[in-house]
Amino acid sequence: MTHLDGAAVAPQERRRLGQLVASVAGAPVSIGCVLLIGILAAVFGGFGDGSRVPLGATARSFPEHWWVLLSSAFWARNPTSAVIGILLLLGVGVPVERRIGSRRFAVAAAAGHVVGVAAAMGFVAVAAGVMGDWVGQIGGNAFAGPSALVCAVLMASTASMTTLWRRRIRLGVFALLLLLALYNGGFADLVRLFAATVGALVGPVLSGRRPVTPHPVSSRHERRVLIALLVAVTAIGPVVAGLAPHAVGPLSVLRFLLTNLQPVDPETLQTLCAYPALARDCAAAGLQLRAGAGGTFMAVLPSFLLLLFADGLRRGRRFAWAGTLLIQAALSAMAVATIVAVLQPSAPDTAAAESMTAVDAPGHGHPFSLVLPLLLPLLLAVLLLTRRKLFTVRAPRGTYLRLAVFVVGLAAVLALTYVAAASAMAQDFNPQPGLAGILADIPDRFLPLGYMFDLTPAFVPMSPGAVAVYEGVGIVFWAVTGAALLRTFLRPAHNRHSLDEDRARAIIKTQNGGTLSWMTTWPGNRYWFTSDGHSFVAYRVIGGVALTLGPPVGPIEDQQKTFDEFSVHAAANGWSPCFYSVPQDLKDHATARGWAGVPVAQETILDLDQVTFKGKKFQDIRTAMNNAAKAGVQAQWTTYKAAPRGVQAQIQEISEEWVADKKIPEMGFTLGSLDELDDPEVRCLVAIDKDKRVHAVTSWLPVYSDGVVVGWTLDVIRRRSTAMRASAEFLIASAAVTLRDEGYAFISLSGAPLAPPPPSDGGTGPDPSPNAMDRFLEGLGSTLEPIYGFRSLLGFKSKFQPRYVPLYMVYPDPAALPTIGSAVTRAYLPEVGFEQGLSLARTLLQSVLSRVRRSLRSRP
Q1: Whole-model pTM above 0.70?
Q2: What SS3 class is residue 577?
Q3: What is the pLDDT of residues 90-104, one digit of tens each?
C-alpha cells in the first residue's frame, strides 16, 4: 500500500516540479536579476558598507558614480533587503514577465529603474529650495534593490489587463507609493514612485498603442471599490510612518493624529527618570517603551477602524460611509487643533504638538508642512460627501441598535473585569491605585494607547500580568467590536428594504404589475399607495416632475383609478405628473382625459409556447448555439449571490469593461447594473466554458401575476470583448428554451427607447401623421444612436422575431415638456460630470453634423 501511495504521489510531484521549471524557464530576466543580486554580494564582499565600490544610489551619486543608475537595482544593503528583493522578483517579477514577455519586461524594468533613480535625484535637487528641511534629510539616503524595477514592470503590465484590474492595481499601487513618499519620505520611496510612473507610461507603448488619458467612466459598483481602496491605503500610510523609526515625509506628522505611535528610546527614558519631579512622565514613557503588540494595536486603532469601514464602503454601506466621514472630520479637527497649538508662542501641551515642534521633525518648519496634513483628511471628507449617493445600502432595521446594545454590554463586562483584576493586582501598579482611581481610569482603557499621554496616566502597570490587564481590556473590546461591525457589512444587502419597499414587493408578488414591475424595487424610487393598499405607483421627483417608472402596480381593474388618484396627489404637491413607459390601454385612458402621449420605447416579447428557433429567420441563433457547443461553452443559471467568487469577479470585470467603453456613466432608471443584479429574486444566466471563464452574462427579473411568476424580463446583458462570438445570442436563446421547459409563458427582452420597429417585422412603424414631438424624438433617437446604440440594440433583438409592444410617455401639460425632458435625462443619467457632459455634447454635435452632411449629399 505504501509503495502504491508513493507511486501515485510521484507523478503529481513531478508535475509540480515541471510546472515550476516551466515557470522559471519562462522568466529568464527575473531569474537573471536574482542571480545577479547574489553574485554582486559575493564579488564585492557582502552587503552595505562592506562594499568596496559604491553601487547604491543616493541623491548625490550622479554624475561622479553614474553607474549607480543601473547597478543599484542589483545591490542589497543587508541580507534582509536581499531576501525581500528576491521575493519581489519571484512573486511579482516572474508572473509579470510570463504575462508580457521577456523583451518587454527587460525594457520596462530598465527604463523604469534608470529613469526612476534619475528623476528622484532631479526632484531632490529642484525641491531643495522649496522644502529644504525634508530634502536635507533624505539627500544622503541610499537606494538599493529591485523594488523600483518591480514597480515599473507591474505598472507596465496593467496595459494588457482588463479595465477592472488595471484601474484597481494602478490606483492601489500609486496611492500606496505616493503616501509612502509623503509619510515616510525616504529617497527610496521617491525612486519607486517615479519608476512606477515610468512603467505606466511605457506599458501602452510596449503593447503597441499610445498612452492615453485614463478614462474617467466607471460603474457605480467600481467607484465604490476604488473609494474603499483609497480609504484603505490612506489608513495604511500613517501606520507605516508610525512604525518607521525615521519617517521624514511632509505628512509624517499625521502619524501622531492617526496612530499616536511615539517611540521612546532608553536614553530619553533614563533622562526622564533621573528627576523625581518627572516621575509620572517617567512611568508613562516606560509604558510606551514597553508597549508590545497590544499597545501597537491600540495605537493604530483609527487605521483599524478605517480598514473595517473600507470594506463597508466597498459594499456600498451607508453606515460605513458615515463612520469614515466622521473619522476624517475628527482627524481634520485634530489637525487644526494641533496646528493652532504649534503656532502658539507658549510651549505646547499635547504630545502630538510636541512631536510636531520637535527639533528632530524634519521638514515641519515650512508652512507647507503645516497645511498639507490638514488637507488629506479634508480632501477625503470632501470626496465622501460628493459621492454620498454611491453608498445607499442600509442594513436591516434594528441592526445597529442591536450592535449598540451589544457594544455597551461588552464594555460593561470588560470594565467590571478590569476593576476586579486591577483591584486584585493593585500592588503591581505604580503608584498603587485605590478603587476610586481604578474607576476613574476605566475610560482610558478603551482609548488608543497613545491618547493617554495627552491625559497623563494616573498609574501605570509594572508586571507582565498588570500590563496584560491594563492593555488587554481595550484590545478585546475593539477586536470584538470590529468583528461585530464587519458582520453587519456581511449581512445580505437584499434585507435592506424600507417599509414602503416591503409593501411594494408584497403587492408585486400578489397582484399584477407587468414586465417593468420589478424595476420599481430599485433604489431611487418613492412609493405612493392607494387608500386600500392594494396598488402603488413608483416614482421620483426631479425638477418638479413626478416621473413614474411604468404603470401603476396592482389589480388590473384598478389601474386606471390608481392613475387618476396619483395624478391628483402629484398636483396637490405642486408636481407635474408624468407616467413613463406605460402600455397602450393606459395611454388611451390618459388621452381621453386630455393628456398628451408620445412613444418612448418598443418592448420586445417572446411568447415561449411559440419558440422553436426553426427556419431561415433563426439561422443566426442556431449558429450561435452550435458554435457554443463546439467551443465547450455552456449556459448556467445562478444568482449573483450564490455564484462562486470566481464567477462574481468575472462578472464584475465584464461589467466594468462594458461601462469603460462608454463616454458617459452607467445609466439607471429602467436600466439595471450590478447593484440591481445582486438580488436573490433576480436570476443570472452566464456563458461559461470548461476552463470556468465567463464569456457573457444576462440577468432576468421576475414578472408576477396573481402571486405566480409567469415570465421574465431581460435586464443586464454584457459580454467580454474577447468572448465567443454571438455569446449574447446564445444566452438569450438558451434562456428562452429553458424557461419554456420550466413552464413560463413569455420573456421580455425589454424596451429599446427611441427605436420604432420596422413595419415588416410586425411593428406599428412610424406614425403616418407625426406631430412635432414625434419628429423631435425621431431626430433625437438618430442623434443619440452613436452613444447609446438603442436602435442597434433593437436590431439585435429582432433576430429573435419578437412581438413588439409600444410603450408611451403621457403627461397633462405640453408646456412642461422641457422640464419633463430634463427630468427623464436626469433619471437615466443622474451622475454626469462636467467633463463627461462636454464629451457627450461633443459626440452629439458630431452626430448632428454627420447627419447634416449626409442630408446635403443626398440632395440632387
Answers
A1: no
A2: strand
A3: 889 899 998 888 999
